Each structure stands twice: as C-alpha cells, then as structure tokens.
Amino acid sequence: MSGSGAPGPGAAPCRFAHYFVLCGIDAESGLEPDELAGENFDQSPLRRTFKSKVLAHYPQNIEWNPFDQDAVNMLCMPKGLSFRTQADNRDPQLHSFIITREDGSRTYGFVLTFYEEVTSKQICTAMQTLYQMHNAEQYSSVCASSSCSMDSLASSIDEGDATSLAKLQRYNSYDISRDTLYVSKCICLITPLPFMQACKKFLIQLYKAVTSQQPPPLPLESYIHNILYEVPLPPPGRSLKFYGVYEPIICQRPGPNELPLSDYPLREVFELLGLENLVQVFTCVLLEMQILLYSQDYQRLMTVAEGITTLLFPFQWQHVYVPILPASLLHFLDAPVPYLMGLQSKEGTDRSKLELPQEANLCFVDIDNHFIELPEEFPQFPNKLEFIQEISEVLLQFGIPPEGNLHCSDSATKLKNLVLSDLVNDKKNGNIPSNALNMYELLKGNETIARLQALAKRTGVTMEKITTPLTEKEKDGKLSCEELELRDYKLNVQLREVFANRFTQMFADYEAFVIQAAPDMESWLTNREQMQNFDKASFLSDQPEPYLPFLSHFIETQMFATFIDNKIISQWEEKDPFLRVFDSRIEKIKLYNVRAPALRTSNYQKCSTLKEAAQSIEQRLMKIDHTAIHPHLLDMKIGQGKYEQGFFPKLQSDVLATGPTNNNRWASRSTTTQRRKDRLRQHSEHIGLDNDLREKYMQEARSLGKNLRQPKLSDLSPAVIAQTNWKFVEGLLKECRMKTKRMLVEKMGHEAVELGHGEANITGLEENTLIASLCDLLERIWSHGLQVKQKENPERGQRNKGKSALWSHLLQYQEREEKQEHSAESPVAVGTERRKSDTGITLPTLRVSLIQDMRHVQNMSEIKTDVGRARAWIRLSLEKKLLSQHLKQLLSNQALAKKLYKRYAFLRCEEEREQFLYHLLSLNAVDYFCFTSVFTTIMIPYRSVIIPIKKLSNAITTSNPWICVSGELGDTGVMQIPKNHLEMTFECQNLGKLTTVQIGHDNSGLLAKWLVDCVMVRNEITGHTYKFPCGRWLGKGVDDGSLERILIGELVSSTSDEELGKQCRTPPQQKSPTVARRLSITSLTGRNTKPNAGQIQEGIGEAVNNIVKHFHKPEKERGSLTILLCGENGLVAALEQVFHHGFKSARIFHKNVFIWDFIEKAVAYFETSDQIGDNEEALLLQRSSCKTFCHYVNAINTAPRNIGKDGKFQILVCLGTRDHLLSQWIPLLAECPPITRMYEENALLRDRMTVNSLIRVLQTLQDFNIILEGSLIKGVDV
C-alpha cells in the first residue's frame, strides 16, 4: 500500500477494497456543534456545521491497514454534518481523499455524500429551537439583522435559486410544521489503490438502489460483501470486471513496465488550471515550495493534487501531503516545511481575507478562479515553451483548449454523464449538458486556438481530429460513458508520457554521476548523513546552459535525494518500482539514439511513445482478463435487509464482518506468494543486519533532511499538537545544521576534497542555489508559530503578495529602535573595523548596525516586495559576516518576540535558537559576495584613502592627483582628488569585486614627486575593503619616471574574521599573501634577495598554469584574470624576473637602467637592420614578427599616458598575451645584438634551452580568448 501501489510488507492486500464506511448523524447524541470546524454562530443554524460520526464500518479491522476512525470521519465529512430543507439543492456530491501514514504509504477513500430526511422528532425540534434563538438574537440588533439578511442572501444565491423576497424571508427560518429537514450522510469505500472511476460507479449504483422506487435485485449487503471480500485487485498489466448493483464495472492496472496507476482525470486538471498555470505549479512542486490549493469543491482539490503529483514520475513528493485539509487542522498551515495541501474555500470569501502565516515561499492556487500566485524568484522549467507546445498538441487532439475551460470540469458533470439522469440540475457550478460541449466550436474565434492551429499545421497535427470524435458521435446521440472514459484514460496516459519523457531526456545520464561509495548497505546507512551521493558540480557542468537555473535548485530537493538514494539501495535490494520503470526507459532511448554521454544539447526531443501507451490501455479495457464472482444472496436473518426508499438501510453487521473462508483462488494464490516472501525475509535476516534495526536505519536514511512527513489526523489533543511542533523545531535545527555545513564544505575546499568533491571550488551557480535555500529556511523559521497576521507595511499601500515574516519582524524592530533613538542616544554596536597603516592614516570606522543595513536595502528602488527585501538583507548580512550577530540582536528584544510568536515557535525555544545562531556564525569562516554579485545595478557609496610613505616623501603632493577605480562590473572613470586631501567618497553603480586602481597626477607645483605606499578603497554598504599596494614613486625624474600607475587590488580581511579563524576548527580561506608590493628590482637594487634560475622557471610555469586553470572553469566561476596577469605572482611579474636575470643593472653614470630600455634598443635594431634567415619562409615569418613587435612598442610609447617604463613593460606583456604573440617575440629578443651588451653571459635569455622551454610554456596560452580589462591598456591603440 505504498504510494506506488506495491503491497506493504507482511500483508496480503489483494482485495480491491479494504473497508466500507457509513458516516452521518448519531441519533443518540443529537446535534453537537463542531467547534473545531471554526464556524461562527452568527450564521443561521442551517448554515452551521455539526459533528458527524462513523455509524458503521466493515470489516471491523484489517491487520495490515488498521481502521483510523477519527481520520476517516474527518475526511469523509470535512465540514461535519450539513442540514437542508426541501427548498434547498440536495444533489449528491462525490469526493475522494487520501490518508498518508508516517511511513509514507497511502490509502485512498472515495465518498458519496447525499441527503436523507431526518426522521428523529428530537432533532427536528432541536433545529427549530436553534432557529428561534437565532432569530431572537437577530431582531435584538438592527445592524446584525441586516448582516443576517445578507448572509441568507449570499447563501441562497449560492444555492442557485432565483429567489423572491418572500422566499428569502422564509429561507431564513425553519418551521417544523411546514418544512422537511434533511441531513447529509455518506457512503465510502477505502481502497489500497486509487481506482477512482470504478469506486465512483459502485457508490453511485448503491445510491441509485437506495433512491429508486424498485428495491434492488439483492439486498445491499450482498454487493458490499462482494466488493469487500470477493473482488480481487487486478494483477499488474491486467483488467478486471466486477458487478455493481445494476451493471458491470471494469478497472485496469498498468503493467510492470508502464507508468504507475493514476485514475484521476488529467483532463479535468488541465481544464481547471489551464496549461500555462499548470506548468508553473508543477515547477513549484518540483522545487518543493509550499503549495496551497484553494477551492470550494473537495473533489477539485483532490483531482489537482493527485494529477500534479502523478506527473512527477519518476520522482515522488516527499513532504506533507494533505489534499483536503479538514477545518480542524488549519494550524498545519504554519508548518515550516514544504507541503502540498488543499483548503476548502468558504462560499463568498475573498482570497485577501485568507490569513496565511507564511507567504514568502508559497504557491497559492485558486482553482475555482483559474488563478495562481507564484513565489518570487523561481526558475522556469527547461524548454518550457516547446514543452507547452507539445502538451498543447496532445490536448487539442482530445478537443481540450490549452488555456483551460473552467465550466466543463466539475465532479457533478461526471455524475450526470454516468447514470444519474435524475441528478442533473446542478446550476450552481455552471454545468452545461455534455452534448452542448463541442469545445472546438466554442473556442473557434479564440486567438490562442488560432495560434495553436497554425502551430499544429506546421507540426503535422490535423485539426480535424479535434472535431471528429465529438461531431460524428453526436449524430447518433451522446458519447457513451465507456467511450468518454476510454478517452480520458488515453489522454491521461499520453499526457503522462510527455512529462515522463522530459525527465528521461533531462536525466538520461544521471547514473554516471551517482557516487557509489559504500561497500555494503549497512555502512551506507550508518554513514548516510556524511556521504555525498551525487556529483552535483560535474552533473551541472555537463548540462546545457539554459537548464542550469532550474536544475541547480532541483538537485537540492528531497525528492531528488530520495531518488538517488533508491538508486544506491538498488545494489542491495529490489529496485523501487518507479526507478525500475525509469531506468528501463533510459536504456531504451540509449539503444535508439546512441549519443556520447558527455555531449548534452538543449535540443527538444518529443515523446515518441504516445500511440503505444494509449493502445495498451485500450487493449486492456476491450479485452477483459479477469471476472470477479457475482454478488449473491448471503446467509441473512429473515426479515432484515428491509427496503425503504430514500433511506440507506441499517446493514446486517454479522454477514459483513468477515469474508468467505478461503473459497476463492486469488486468496490462496496470495498466501503462497506470502509464504515465499516470508522465506526470503528470514533469509535476509540471517544474512544482513537484524531486520528491525535495518528498517529503523532505512527510515532514518530516507527521512534525512526531511522534517515531519505527515500530520496525524486522528489525535488532536494539545499534547500531540505540541509534540508535532517540537518535531518541526528539531527538523528546522537539523536542516539549518546541514545547510550551513554544506555551504562551508562546498566553499572551503580542503574538507570538500577529502569528501570526494574533486576540485575545491564551489560554482557560483551552486553557491547561489545554496544561499537561496538558506533564505528560504530563514523565512520558514520566522514563519513558524507566528502569532498574528503580519501588519501591513504602510509604505506599500496596496496589498502585496510578497509578504515576509522575517522582514515584518525587522520592520517592527526598526520602528521600536528608531523611537528609542529619538528619545536617547543610539544603542548601536560599533565594530572594530579600523583600518590602520604604517603612516597612521586610516579609513574611518564603519559602524556595525542592523538598522543601517536595513536602510541600505530600503533605499534599493529595484526591490519591490518584502520577500525581496528580506532576501537582500540576508545576502548583505552574510557578505558582511554579520548574519548571526544581526539575528542575535533582533531576537534579543524578547518583548517583541513574545508579541509576535506563540510559545511553541522555533524562535522562542531558547536552546535551539542559540544552536541555530551558532550554526550561522560558522558561515563567517568563508567569504561570500552574494550581495555584490546579485544586485549589480544599484548605486553604491565608496570611500578611498591614499596612503603615502611619509618617511621618504612628502605626505601631500602639490600637483593635481586623480584616481580611477575598476571592478569586475565596470569603472568609475577618472576622478580628481580634492587638493590637499588624501581621502574622498564617491557614489557609482556597483563595480562588483574591485580589481584595479589607476592613480596619477599632472606633475605640477614644487613638490610634485610622491611616494605612494598603497590605496585603500571600501564599499560603504558591504564593508569590503580592498588594498592596492604600490610602493613606487609618481613623478618625473624619479624611479621609472611614471606619472600614473595601475595598481592591482586584494581584499583585506577584517580583524573579526581572523579572530573567528582562530576559534574555528576549519582553516579560513587562503588570502593572497600581504607581502609589501614588490619594488622594481632595478629601482631599489639589492633590497630583495634575487631568485635563482630554477625558481624563476618555476614561477613562469605556475603563472601560466594558473591562467590555463582559469579558462578551464565555467565562465561564471572564473575569478579576475587581471590578478593572474599583473598580480603578485602573475605572468608579468614572472616574465620580469626572466628579463631581470643576468641584466647588467649597475647604474651607468648614476642612471637607472630598466627592461624597457633593452626593449627600445631591440626595436631600434629591428627597424634599421635587414635580418638574414636560413630560408625564405622563416625570413618572412621573422619579418612579420619584428614588424608587429615594433608596432606594439611604438604604440605604447606614443600613447597619451604618463606611464613609466615598468608600466609600459606590463602593457606590452598583457597585449602580447592577448594577441598570442609572446612566443614569437621572445626568440627575436633572445637573438638580437643588444642582448650581448646588456646581459651577462649566464643570463636566462642567452641560454637557448631555457628560451625554447619558455616558448613552449607560453604557447599553451594560444588556445584561449584573453580579454583584458580596459584599465590595463587604456589609450594604447594597436
């Protein structure tokens, strides 16, 4: 009885139905108001709900599926009893429900609710008394009276009566002498598998037997006994015929290699939601958001929930699943877990009045109004447009408009279509008789249909198909019920095939990425929590770019984790049925199109198995495989089984309590299979671990990362509710621990490699997914146990769907703090972020303030909703390494927390809250740029400070200094620094991570020469501070004569992280070494120890290797190429070392000699001499290389920039790397005559072998498209 319809362990659930149940009014206890249903007493008594009761169920109990009386009663009559008079509509209603047990197994219930005349004088009198009291109350207050007439007006309109005023007045009363009172009663079948159509027909025939004028052929007990004990489940791949009261009923079950059983008509789901909405909701379900379905009709809730979860194949929904949430369980809506629940809307209530504790991550589906509200920021399903197009084609072939059609899908329509011609008049739901329903004609003028018609023509689908099935048959009369049903079955299976095919294509290679680390099941189960079971990074790097936003979120879900767990377990156990079918499909497509597993394309491949799937169902339904025993007379007491029209008889319980003693073949067959199973089980017990222990491990392994699976419907005592909430709290804490651990491990490297991650670099995409799921977790924690609906944010004016519990809490905290700030001095914590340098010039302290960070977010006009603001604030706090500290400060206001949260809320469980903040604190060990990299268009204030070396130079220059700051997202342009100032603030669009600073001056005034130690720049929102080391002079006639320099930045870590690094067991991320910026070897001779030849060659190899690695990462994950070229251990520095080796750098006549002097001498030689080559071809090549070399050097020399000689060498190396010319220039320089004058004999450039190996190393960069940052080559025109 698990979700896949496989029999449960140790059971013999081979019966078609497990229980027959009768619910209704208990004549002895009379009218008991149902407080749990939350109805108010202002309503007229006929509108109130009263407690229902299970009147009888047969058999009493089944060992493998114990009867849960409370749950069944609650789900059979979710609103309790309802009363009607002869003036009201009393059509029977059919709905179904599902009970999911804690272990995830499911049982289905199918319910027919009808109205029976109340014969008890006592109850009629009680109703009249209630009315007299109600009317007395109404008349005592004029105001209330008007609202009451409104109430009755609404109700009567709802009943679909064209009422006159007189009728209205009469409607609001019940007069025992004049009116007949009716009360609801229901009959229900509980089955292990969802055979909806068959159960519906059986119940309708039973109901017809009760209401018809002729008594049924046999007593009703015969039919109920037959379906409970003598009708087996059809075997997989077979069909079965059994008998109702009047006509035979057929059901079928898919074979072992087909999609699992689903009997709910998808036609209805598509008509109710429309295709576009359905795909969006389906995507939300796949990403495990909170889904709330909303409708007046229970059957619609069930049909949509079952329809959508059916389409998830091969995945299965792993969280809370309650398609019909009884009124008494409304507190479950604040469950801080993903859920799929259905809520019945009360007549005439507006969605805006619905108070939901959490809406940040909610997908709200208003079924009756064809309307959905989606969470913010969720990715689209891959190939969404082509996917919708393919489904449209299937729908159109069956005459269903893709935009849906609200009126034609109603459970009541179905009842009419079947056998109840006497039940047709349900005007309330806008039903049209089915012969008026040629959908295509209805929608001929519709523009979507026209578009799809054109599309269909292109794809070769003929539109005639749409009209023929309906029109031809209509000549002879309506489509027969069997044909309608067959069409529904065929449509169901074809739509499901299209959805399953998408997953088969998307995950065709999933097996290659499953990590099978454990040698046996026992060790796998015990270490499940620590183990990685799927190589996510490699899988994503193998996917087409457009799929990534969706897939990166999807592979983090519980349903995907369970799917992979099932795959790993299948090494030791029988395969999960869903997995078996899915794997066989993948095998099939691999046979048909042999493609290299690594080559992924985003080309859309349509489903090719639609015909076969429809045919196999049709064959089963046309050719019946099995027929059950006919209903027959039972050994009943004489005089019982009396028939009274319109009343369901009191059944004889002794004949229904037990089945026949093993007189049918299927029962004995099941016992032999049971014996075989028992033998197998004993065998496995001898082999492996003790089975109980193993089952416990399995449950734990499967529930990893999940919180509470299912609410218990039966026991609603405060203790149980408290325990449930406690489970939520524990689950949230566990989830927080796992998420923070994962974020750390992925980011930190060293540990990640040990856990088999491969390279220790988290991809930007994966990081973004993890941070988004952290935002979602915080939002769920802040929604748990929320006391009241959050206050409307006055700033927003109109209602905003993006409500956020966290942001609401922050706003109320801000309001209180700001009031206090006005009355006293601000109680803001000040951080220790003072940046000092040798000179004592500092960046002023950036104060740490939760409120200030909120204001930054509030000033971002790009963010329109509260959920967006909360997420931006979380990202900002995480980037500033203040998330834990800010949240601790927020929660330190206990009075506010008490006001906002119920006692059981997570945020009021002190110990758990402390642990939660501690887990968040661990995230401070790594650097995130999750705010800077996401909000790329916002304006950000920056502050810069220039720090000179005062000992050797004047602090302030008399010339006019300027600065230009560049980052990964852009630059500021040249900004003049105010005279006599070393510090300035400026605002510009987000520059991203800062990479370079250009600094210079115009050399005017007496004290123009300036020795700059470094430049510091800070992002005033995120607090990130960058240091740009210089250590060189700016000025003519000093150092290399440069008036401007390009400085390469490095992020400075705050003192607080260093302290944390000491506390943390994990080492903090490696920073670039903060050695003072290398001074030119020639400018300060003898300061640095010179590296030897071996170290220099190693340095070149490392610099080139880093660039190669850079290009092997996915584009979005690459860091700054500028640092790899010009940074501390970059290519320019490495080549500088090569050129300095053996350079005759002694001062000639007290004048420094630079590499650039050698370059210029070489150019002068190339321009004046004719080279001699061995052959013509080599000569031509050499000439063109010389020509380009001279051209580049002259372009750098004539550029309108005041760059010094070392700066020019840097530009030359950068351009040579970009245009792949370095490997051609090095041999020219190594062989030109000036080298002998300017280099020692032992110089690396004069050693042929070294030069050849250098050329080979540089040639490895030829394959890459190197794009230089604009600041490096500004003004150089080559």
UniProtKB/TrEMBL annotation:
SMART domains (alphabetical): dDENN, DENN, RUN, uDENN
What are the protein's GO molecular function terms?
Answer: guanyl-nucleotide exchange factor activity; small GTPase binding
Q: Where is the composition biased (Polar residues)?
A: 659-673
Q: Which UniProt keywords apply?
A: Guanine-nucleotide releasing factor, Membrane, Phosphoprotein, Repeat
Q: Which domain of life is it from?
A: Eukaryota
* One Gene Ontology term, aspect cellular component: membrane
* Region of interest called Disordered, as start-end residue ranges on this chain: 659-678
Domain (UDENN) spans 34-574
Main localisation:
membrane
Q: Where in the cell is it found?
A: Membrane
Which residue intervals define the domain PLAT in the entry? 940-1048
Q: Which residues form the RUN domain?
A: 765-936, 1122-1271
State the family it belongs to: Belongs to the RAB6IP1 family.
Query: What name does this protein carry?
Result: DENN domain-containing protein 5B isoform X2
Taxonomic lineage of this organism? Eukaryota, Metazoa, Chordata, Craniata, Vertebrata
